[in-house]
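About this split. The held-out portion is used to measure sequence recovery: a designer receives only the structure tokens and must propose an amino acid at every position. Recovery is the fraction of positions where the proposal matches the reference. Here is one held-out target exactly as it appears in the evaluation file.
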């Protein structure tokens, strides 16, 4: 008899401004805990760093959250008793887990919340449990701030998480 996998919890939403994207990050932070991996996928300018900035605010971490494109990864220590935020830009990484470990982050990944931009096809092997956030925006020369988002929880960690609380 074939085992049928439970559906992955998923929610779709529309975000209409950078301020709403940051607020979504603040709300999402309340669902996160140490050891969580959040994988962000979206075009340049989709709002990945803006969402992560809100996550940092919600997690109460030190330091301004900016794109780590040139340093590849930044660690933002918690200002309280929460987990640090490790913000990774995997755009220039070629090979996944080995390169992540080579970054020599002075933090234990299982004790941190890890947010990876451009991580698709590169960091899935870090854990079976992850939250995948896909951000779609109008492509081309546009000032449109509307983003259509899909958040999907994968693995046992996310099986019982009610992502619908994020839809305001």
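Reference sequence for scoring:
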């Amino acid at each position: 008899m074939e085992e049928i996998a439970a559906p992955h919890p998923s929610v779709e939403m529309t975000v209409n401004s950078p301020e709403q994207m940051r607020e979504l990050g603040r709300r999402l932070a309340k669902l996160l805990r140490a050891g969580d991996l959040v994988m962000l996928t979206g075009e340049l300018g989709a709002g990945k760093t803006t969402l992560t900035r809100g996550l940092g605010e919600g997690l109460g971490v030190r330091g301004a959250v900016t794109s780590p494109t040139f340093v590849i990864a930044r660690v933002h220590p918690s200002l309280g008793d929460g987990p640090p935020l490790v913000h990774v830009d995997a755009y220039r990484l070629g090979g996944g887990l080995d390169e992540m470990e080579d970054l020599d982050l002075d933090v234990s990944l299982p004790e941190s919340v890890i947010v990876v931009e451009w991580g698709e096809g590169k960091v899935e092997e870090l854990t079976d449990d992850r939250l995948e956030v896909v951000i779609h925006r109008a492509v081309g020369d546009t000032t449109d701030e509307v983003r259509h988002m899909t958040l999907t929880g994968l693995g046992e960690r996310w099986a019982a998480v009610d992502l619908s609380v994020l839809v305001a």
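Annotator remark: The longest helix spans residues 18-29.
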